[in-house]
Amino acid sequence: MLGFLKKPIVVTAEINVNLVALTVLGLINRLWGLSYPQAVVFDEVYYGQFVSLYMKRIFFVDDSGPPFGHMLLALGGYLGGFDGNFLWNRIGAEYSMNVPVWSLRLLPALAGALCVPVAYQILVELQFSHCAALGAALLILLENSLITQSRFMLLESILIFFILLAVLSYLKFYNVQKHSSFSGSWWFWILLTGVACSCAVGVKYVGLFTYMLLLAIAGLHFWHMIGDQNFSNISLICHFLARGLALIIIPMAMYLSFFYVHLTLLYRSGPHDQIMTSAFQASLEGGLARITQGQPLEVAYGSQITLRNVLGKPMQCWLHSHTNTYPIRYENGRGSSHQQQVTCYPFKDVNNWWIVKDPGMQQLVVSNPPRPVRHGQIVQLVHGITTRYLNTHDVAAPLSPHSQEVSCYIDYNISMPAQNLWRVEIVNRESDTDVWKTILSEVRFVHVNTSAVLKAISGIFHFQLSGASLPEWGYRQLEVVGEKLSKGFHQSMVWNVEEHRYGKSQEQKEREVELHSPTQMDISKNLSFMAKFTELQWKILTLKNEETEHKYSSSALDWITMDTNIAYWLHPTSGAQIHLLGNVVTWTSANIAALAYLCLSFWYLIRRRRKIYDIPEDAWQLWVSAGGICMGGWAVNYLPFFLMEKTLFLYHYLPAVTFQILLIPVVLQHLSDHLCRSVLLKSTFNALIVAWFSSVYFAYCTFSPVTYGHPALSVTQLKDLRWKDSWNILIRKQ
């Protein structure tokens, strides 16, 4: 029974010393002196704000991308015990004692360190020699720009790690498949490919480029499988379904999970609420939820409501009126109706309240039981404080002369009768009998007489039409007009009820007191996760901050030759500084390698067309597959930036240049194996490689003081580092 104890239990393991050594070197290289400087470095001022909001569970929207990367940075703060109390308002500001600097920078640094062994493994899986793989890893290790970017609370190193991990996982999967499909390791690597792809996209949307590249490569490989008669129809279907599950379904599910965790963590109202819909705001703790708690759900005749414009850009605003009238004549000489002004006001105010009235009845209170308003029914909107009716007629609006003026009607006993009937159309209805609901229903008001739609003219339209909001006589508030339906649909035509109560007072003075009173009834307005995800995702994709020229912004053309740099940090007294600068020798070599690859590939293709085969078929397949990964990775991560209308910085090029660096040992090994045919040529070529690699190390050491920020350099030494006139090395005036 216990016979197995008579022999010792032996565990054997293979240890790749190269891999272990590279991992250790990467950790030392990226983690050394990680807490230095104890000050805010460049975009830490941007990402730090979101980390603080995570610590305080306050909702925010970042239009730069999905939340996964931000959550990883926040995880570092959580592990370090950060309470979120720090004012992220200035680059170079000294961190207070409560900020765990090392912990906040740890995850980006670990990701940067792990890129070194992953690069080694990618070359091995591409069937290149361990010497070439070692060279690729060392080039990543000694790349100054990657070191700088990974040592601070920034996202690029995390993005690059997941991109490289996705490539490595797919290559592992592809190589395992050659001898054992559907094995445990086969499933592990294809699932890890999908997971890494979703993580890359979840950090920054540019991760989508590498994801699309891998999907294209996987599709090409599957296409070749279809032509292989060794695979049965059932087997091909299983392979197709497995790839669909691992490379599409699971990444999509993970992407959703990032938002689920994000929205679960950030349940409190915050500074970014105003760009979200009322329903979304009401689902957050505090803020609008505190105001709307206890509101009736169904809008009825006699309801007292505030109407918020759904567009919410450039700012949220509510349908508003006040006692002032439109001027008899505008500055351009056009006349007005001289009726009471109606505007869209960006602040909560008692003049934002309106009463929903049944045109066939005089009462302004809710009956018992309440009579809910349904889609398609006619209403009148009575301004709560002035008791005048919302009206529009064939008079040109003050700033938008091609649209109708909207006003609250004043009877001047002239030939301009009231036109105050509006049809309620629920845009997001499920059926034509839907009831108008507080917060949840998005409605538009169609004028019965003219078919014009009530519309708020946002700031962007003001700029296009007149260059400003209403003049001083309109208190600089936003214009509201009646827009013809023939001009098309726009979100600025859609409104939702935000605050709501059932009116009980028929007398005006009692009603004014009622308008200032809190509501009593309790009803939940919680949104489903998918509704919140859809809205938040749309905001991230469409919300655009005003792009401004930055001192260190650059064009995509500047990146290839590294004609630009970014000053990340400057010591206030010693002159020590940190710059985002690449290893000049490596970047130049990467450009030469890319050019050599393209020229050789073109030459080989022409020769093969003529049935001349300069290299063996297996070497050609290796050359093509390596180019698909390295050149393809460079192209998909670089060329799209020429189409982007955004402020660009040198760090946007780092994913692309990482792939280009991996191409250098690919080209070098190819030249050594197939073009250096004699022993003398091989020896000379190897000697040149050693000399070249020494220059890479020399450039790394030369720029290390501005990579790590230590030691501080003299003015002369700083001037010596300005290898290009376009570089902005900071030199203090003596």
From TrEMBL:
Chain ranges passing through the membrane: 9-28, 68-88, 100-120, 154-174, 186-219, 240-261, 584-606, 618-636, 648-668, 680-700
Catalytic activity annotated for this protein? a di-trans,poly-cis-dolichyl beta-D-mannosyl phosphate + L-threonyl-[protein] = 3-O-(alpha-D-mannosyl)-L-threonyl-[protein] + a di-trans,poly-cis-dolichyl phosphate + H(+); a di-trans,poly-cis-dolichyl beta-D-mannosyl phosphate + L-seryl-[protein] = 3-O-(alpha-D-mannosyl)-L-seryl-[protein] + a di-trans,poly-cis-dolichyl phosphate + H(+)
Which locations, inside or outside the cell, does it occupy? Answer: Endoplasmic reticulum membrane
- EC number in record: 2.4.1.109
Entries under SUPFAM superfamilies matching the protein: MIR domain
> Known InterPro entries for this protein?
ArnT-like_N, MIR_dom_sf, MIR_motif, PMT-like, PMT_4TMC
> What GO molecular function annotations does the UniProt record carry, in alphabetical order?
dolichyl-phosphate-mannose-protein mannosyltransferase activity
Stretch forming the signal peptide:
none
Which pathway does the protein contribute to?
A: Protein modification; protein glycosylation
Q: Does the keyword RNA-binding apply?
A: no
Its GO CC terms are: endoplasmic reticulum membrane
* Mode of membrane association: Multi-pass membrane protein
Against Gene3D superfamilies, the record matches this protein to:
2.80.10.50
MIR domain sequence ranges: 296-359, 370-427
Q: List the keywords (alphabetical).
A: Endoplasmic reticulum, Glycosyltransferase, Membrane, Repeat, Transferase, Transmembrane, Transmembrane helix
Q: What class of enzyme is it?
A: transferase
> Pfam families, alphabetically?
MIR, PMT, PMT_4TMC
Q: What's this protein's family per the entry?
A: Belongs to the glycosyltransferase 39 family.
Q: What is this protein called?
A: Protein O-mannosyl-transferase 1
